[in-house]
Design goal:
The structure is a homodimer of 452-residue chains. Helices cover 40% and strands 13% of the residues of chain A. Chain A has an eleven-stranded mixed β-sheet, sandwiched between helices. In chain A, helix 9 runs antiparallel to helix 12. Chains A and B meet through helix 4, helix 7, helix 10 and helix 12 of A and helix 4, helix 7, helix 10 and helix 12 of B.
Chain lengths: 452, 452
Amino acid sequence: MSRPHPRSFARALGDFAAGTDTPRDFLERCIDEIEARDPEVKAFTAINLEAARDAADASTQRWHEGAPLSPIDGMPIGVKDVIETADMPTGMGSGLFDGYSPGHDSASVHALREAGAIIVAKTVTTEFAATRPGPTRNPHDLARTPGGSSSGSAAAVGSGMLAGALGTQVVGSILRPASYCGCVGFKPSLGGINRGGSHDYMSQSCQGVLAATLEDTWQIAREIVVRAGGDPGMPGLIGPAIMPDARTPATLAFLETTGWDVAVPEARDAMLRVLDDLRAAGVKIVTRHDDALVAALEDVIPEVLPLTRRINAWESRWPLNTYVDRDASKLSQGMIDRLREAEAMTVEGYRADIARREEIRAIHAKVSAVAEACITLSAPDAAPLGIEATGNPVFAVPCSLLGVPALSLPLLRVGQMPLGVQTIGYRDEDAALFALSAAIVDIIAPANQNVA
Amino acid sequence: MSRPHPRSFARALGDFAAGTDTPRDFLERCIDEIEARDPEVKAFTAINLEAARDAADASTQRWHEGAPLSPIDGMPIGVKDVIETADMPTGMGSGLFDGYSPGHDSASVHALREAGAIIVAKTVTTEFAATRPGPTRNPHDLARTPGGSSSGSAAAVGSGMLAGALGTQVVGSILRPASYCGCVGFKPSLGGINRGGSHDYMSQSCQGVLAATLEDTWQIAREIVVRAGGDPGMPGLIGPAIMPDARTPATLAFLETTGWDVAVPEARDAMLRVLDDLRAAGVKIVTRHDDALVAALEDVIPEVLPLTRRINAWESRWPLNTYVDRDASKLSQGMIDRLREAEAMTVEGYRADIARREEIRAIHAKVSAVAEACITLSAPDAAPLGIEATGNPVFAVPCSLLGVPALSLPLLRVGQMPLGVQTIGYRDEDAALFALSAAIVDIIAPANQNVA
């Protein structure tokens, strides 16, 4: 089989405007790929092809009339199955919600439809966007996990079955699968995209985007936010109507995190070559070994994963207790264990945990004095063999706890498998992160047709 | 008919412990009152007496064994019908959700059941906790509104049909009906009580409590929060296991707000007598006329209601747009108008509004340098005649926008109708507000058997 690659939508816009391509034809190419690949990849829990074709025809007509609703008018998009859709069930990866249909779209899905995007399918999630995997396989090697929890979204986009997808992340659920499946993954600043109608209630959970290119990624997020805003009380993703131009950063902070010690040699070597290439392009790289502010951040990163897990457990007490009330036999042991852990916690302990999280966020914010962003791997290795587990989130969790924007850029390979480079920005400065990430892509993979 | 009065639960605990009263008997007294009054008052959308009696019997058994689950074990409670319950529908005051049943309890209701409280009924709300009233009438005068949007909760508690109730407030939806119906109303600090499973998504919306006494009010909130926490990412209601002792404040700031000019003379006179009584008890009262920090706050209060309405409109865009998709004919014109207003807004305008809200919050926070709390009326008059509107929220909205705790204390009367005195505290200092409010009750109504 040919190596799968993600599918850029922005590059088709000129052809739509010229009439040499149409959103309906774009969709049919996606459907061809779905029919060819999805029987093996299993990225979807539901597909609504009839509605998708109708929507693509309407979009084609708008482009024909020179009146598209937005730069994503006609884009085929998948929706992680914890996010509600009016026309397809929202199963949350749980037998407890098999066939559950709320009868309405989430805030983000409603906004995407307003922008003319085509909601093609619901994508497989792990159980309640947590640990127990679904049936999805990695499109680059069916013997491997796609990562999780946004498993189907990453597999669908990384394989070119769809141009874009919505995901959610509270630990590493966007960056990790994006890294494993070879697409861009974007976790915005805290509250950057309105979570209304998404079953991810936790305080560091974010809705985010997976797509072929940085440009498509930005556009999807932007079109949602101008129509639906961010989470209530939050400013929402801030930035221009189209992605800002690439801008080479003067200084980046390379973060080892606790992942560096467990990263495979090929991944470490690839990352070190990225740093060399950036230095050769004039970017100064600071590290824990030569900068006190970076060292201070690295020193607290070992706390991040256990702190995240405690915070998530407490914040999952509800609704997990109601799920147990309904039918505990339909929950994984992992979910029941999380509830038992939560029930042993106290609100006072939780308060101490969120106060510590604020301290760690402040330690990270100080790094802005010496570096325009942080850079590291997205994962310690390519996707592991087997689909019984979704891989190690060690590199992806710091940006979740910090509440800051992060991108996984599909720039590296370990053997034949993709691996992401991660960039981590500062709170509500998502646009700056896209600009410098675009420059990094230009430096590391100038000929890469799929990431620009 | 005899004048209705709210029903204290805490005062029954000694009798439960002594075996001279039981939670089942307490419940039966509530049911007697429901049967006598509710055919006229119409406080409820659903009542589950069978489950309530079973729960009361179980509670009676626990008290008999000397092992109550909490100080609210056995308390009959009503739940505003925007808050989900496993055993009763959640209709949200809208034909669109007639009979809707999510199949699970909200975080707060689940916590109440864990604490042994008895969930007796769902209480009438205005449409989506906004403007269009339900059928409820004021138990003190059936020709008058109970206020809204927590209409049924206030009517049920103010009449003694239930000992406590949950409400929600984003403008004036707890304090106003508590004032009109003659019970205590508590709007906590922002995020003080977990809103999981409640259909109030707005950034200044809070879940709160209505009860007969400050002691009961505190206990209900406290028992929820130790089991369910506050909103994710928030510390939740902070304070001791039982309500702190009364503590007379050294200084209070009297706020006129924009309500003073429209308050009826009887209400103004009653409020001025309260201030005189407080001064006589040694409390210093500062006002806009003699303190620059209070004056600075008063100067921005005229912005509060329009700013709140704009913020709420933007934040209601979703889910209102999905309701219109489903069946616009089932929405009030007011709801459709709110959506149209929201659709004319931009995310940039919203950002400016929430930034201004932060500035106003900072102006209020500075008042803490001169006063331990603010005090004012809860409403400009007793409940108005008619049930087609829920009254003027002018006095209640500042605490909503400020995100700070506030109480309505049932201390005044206009003619035969109750009117509340409002105390307003500082963010996450809810316990201090209860302590000084208890002192105010002792000063103003030392013989009041229902508020202590």
